[in-house]
Design goal:
The complex is a heterodimer of chains A (494) and B (135). Chain A has 494 residues and is mainly α. Chain A has helices at residues 3-23, 29-34, 41-52, 55-68, 71-76, 80-101, 107-114, 118-151, 155-203, 207-218, 230-244, 248-251, 266-294, 306-313, 317-353, 361-382, 384-392, 395-408, 417-439, 451-469, 473-482, 484-493. Chain B starts with a helix and ends in a 16-residue tail after the last helix. Chain B is an all-alpha fold and 135 residues long. The chains are: A mainly alpha (494), B mainly alpha (135). Chains A and B meet through helix 6, helix 10, helix 11, helix 13 and helix 20 of A and helix 1, helix 2, strand 2 and helix 4 of B.
Chain lengths: 494, 135
């Protein structure tokens, strides 16, 4: 047994151990879907960052830095930490209060309580289910690649193995297992990112030498306007910031806190952890560029191989094993959140929106979790056209669909159920349409337009416009009822 | 319904988002660029409203100061684009992002939240029930 395989087996055993521990504690849907509202700030914050920092954040950003230059990390990651502060500001106190006043376990639950509109509740339930399966499908594909690299299997076997492992501990322990595995996986990602930063930069003589090597060859590579238009780069940053505050895996974590005091330091922990893991892509991407300039690495035709080429060729196998475990952790930590979110949509939110009462919710939540994983596996392995379409329903679709109705809706009494339904529909349809029409060659999007950023902003604008142009007394009254305490206090003050 | 503080904030967010959208369509990047610190500040201000939709003046001043620092740093990075200077091995504008904006976004923004929460927002939640400890 190689050291790499030994490390991976220990890692898998740890995940199973947490799943087994959590299984014995899951007694209700509240335990399964929101970890029984027992999380402290450290577990919650590390779990939140790790579910946001997906495989794309580690491997995809590395590839983009290697290809585009430093502007790639400015676009996608440097400003995300401030998004954690924005999220804690906008969502922290208000979602905590809602979670204590009502049985709120999911985003559609929040929409159900905020807006007296069945279409809004139903559309959000469908959007979160479809979005969760979409995310899971991408994670299953990435898991297949990493597991196949480690164990030397085919990608198909790797995907099935990886999905089965995540499914087992999530089905057993729900979000209680998910939150704690996210926590362990997040810590692993932080440690590996720090180690990778020093190992990678030392390969080319350290941070300063690496930058000198690159700038002597091509200073443009380090400029903010290196290869991609600046409009594209900053639109990407807008999407990254607003999108972070609108991702279900982040929002639902606020419903899991055990007490209000746990809110205070969460944003700092999550932002620091995310910032540290950015070092991974920053160092490996730039190191690979310096190695290519020095002639020690080939110019890669497929930039997706940037990370794997570096760890296959430039570091000791044991360290590479730790890194692969960390990358798998990044993928799995996003996966289990989406299994729980998707399961919640399927067994709780959709039936509730349709007026159906579900008994024995834990059993149905487990079955729904298995269904989400099965759908993702089938799509990832056998239906490439579906994967293509699902790929369009990702970060930006959630940003356009959720930011207005949820983040603004918690504060703004004029926000309406109709605007919610329209914003959700727009978020999904606009992303799907641009993806399909561009791929078919029917439309050509200029290189300076970053579709995700544009759809995100348009989604927020449409939400505000529809709310103002088609006001709803019922939605405004519901807002007052929802913050009942506030109304009572205002009356007392008068 | 009368126009209240939240309406004004939503209006300002709408204006900033619209400006960013126009910039994205017309390939005028400075508008998209400066909409970032503006939107961050507006959303932080919105999030600092308590349950009676009121602000705490010191907390508001802290958030506005943070926003001004962000705008200033964005301005410096913009002004230094193509100035030919090198700081810490990077072109000046990139260096401002790597050595200033990134740390400020990572550390100062969340610290502002911790401070505002401790001095202001936590009072909203004092009447909510705490859950049994499992961590």
């Amino acid at each position: 047994m190689t050291p790499v395989i030994a490390i991976m087996l220990i890692y898998f055993l740890l995940m199973f151990g947490i799943g087994y521990w959590a299984k014995s504690r899951v007694k209700s849907s509240k335990d399964f879907l929101v970890a029984g509202q027992t999380l402290g700030f450290f577990v919650m914050a590390v779990g939140t960052f790790s579910s946001i920092q997906s495989g794309f954040g580690m491997i995809g950003h590395t590839a983009n830095i290697y290809s585009w230059g430093l502007q790639a990390i400015v676009a996608a990651a440097f400003l995300v930490p401030v998004a954690f502060a924005v999220s804690w500001f906008l969502l922290g106190s208000r979602l905590y209060r809602l979670a204590r006043q009502y049985d709120v376990y999911s985003i559609p639950d929040v929409i159900r309580i905020r807006y007296p509109s069945r279409p809004a509740h139903l559309s959000m339930s469908i959007a979160t289910f479809v979005g969760s399966v979409a995310y899971m499908t991408a994670q299953v594909t990435a898991t297949g690649v990493i597991v196949s690299l480690i164990f030397g299997t085919s990608v198909t076997v790797g995907a099935i193995t990886g999905a089965a492992i995540v499914a087992l501990y999530t089905i057993a322990g729900g979000m209680l297992a998910g939150a704690w595995t996210d926590f362990i996986q997040g810590l692993l990602m932080v440690v590996l990112s720090i180690g990778t930063f020093f190992v990678a930069t030392n390969t080319v003589g350290g941070w300063s030498t690496m930058l000198t090597t690159i700038s002597n060859h091509d200073i443009e590579f380090l400029q903010l306007d290196a290869t991609q238009p600046l409009t594209y780069i900053y639109a990407f940053a807008v999407m990254a910031i607003l999108g972070t505050a609108a991702q279900p895996q982040l929002i639902t974590k606020f419903l899991m806190l055990r007490s209000p005091s746990e809110l205070k330091w969460g944003a700092l922990v999550a932002a620091l952890a995310y910032g540290i893991t950015t070092l991974f892509a920053l160092s490996v991407g730039l190191t690979m560029r310096a190695l290519t300039i020095e002639g020690r690495a080939p110019e890669l035709d497929n930039i997706d191989n940037t990370t794997t080429w570096f760890f296959n060729n430039m570091v000791p196998p044991v360290f590479a094993g730790f890194v692969l475990a960390g990358l798998l952790a990044a993928i799995m930590s996003s996966s289990n959140s989406f299994i729980a979110v998707g399961a919640s949509s399927l067994m709780r939110d959709l039936p509730s929106a349709l007026g159906i009462t579900v008994r024995n919710e834990v059993r149905w939540a487990r079955l729904a979790s298995a269904f989400v994983v099965s759908c993702s596996l089938v799509f990832a392995l056998y239906l490439s056209q579906v994967v293509f379409l699902l790929g369009a329903i990702g970060w930006a679709a959630f940003a356009a669909a959720i930011f207005g109705p949820l983040a603004l809706g918690l504060y703004w009494r004029r926000a309406t159920g109709l605007a919610t339904t329209v914003a959700i529909s727009f978020g999904i349809v606009a992303n799907l349409a641009t993806t399909v029409l561009t791929a078919q060659g029917i439309i050509a999007i200029p290189t300076y337009i970053q579709t995700g950023g544009l759809v995100t902003c348009l989604g927020i604008m449409i939400f505000i416009i529809v709310s103002v142009c088609a006001p709803s007394r019922a939605s405004a009254d519901r807002f007052t009822e929802m913050w009942e305490l506030r109304a009572a206090e205002k009356t007392a003050t008068k | 319904m009368s126009i209240d503080r939240t309406d004004k904030l939503v209006g300002a967010c709408f204006a900033a988002t619209t400006a960013a959208t126009v910039g994205m369509f017309s390939n005028y990047w400075p508008v998209v660029y400066y909409s970032i610190p503006v939107l961050v500040t507006l959303f932080m201000l919105m999030g600092s409203l308590d349950k009676r939709d009121e602000w705490n003046p010191p907390a508001t001043a802290g958030i506005v100061s943070f926003g001004l620092v962000l705008v200033l740093l964005f301005g410096v990075a913009n002004a230094a684009l193509h100035d030919g200077g090198i700081i810490g091995g990077l072109p000046t504008s990139t260096a401002v992002f790597v050595y200033a904006i990134w740390p400020v976004a990572t550390v100062v923004g969340p610290l502002v939240f911790a401070w505002v929460y401790h001095t202001w927002l936590r009072h909203d939640l004092e009447d909510t029930d705490a859950q049994p400890v499992a961590q």
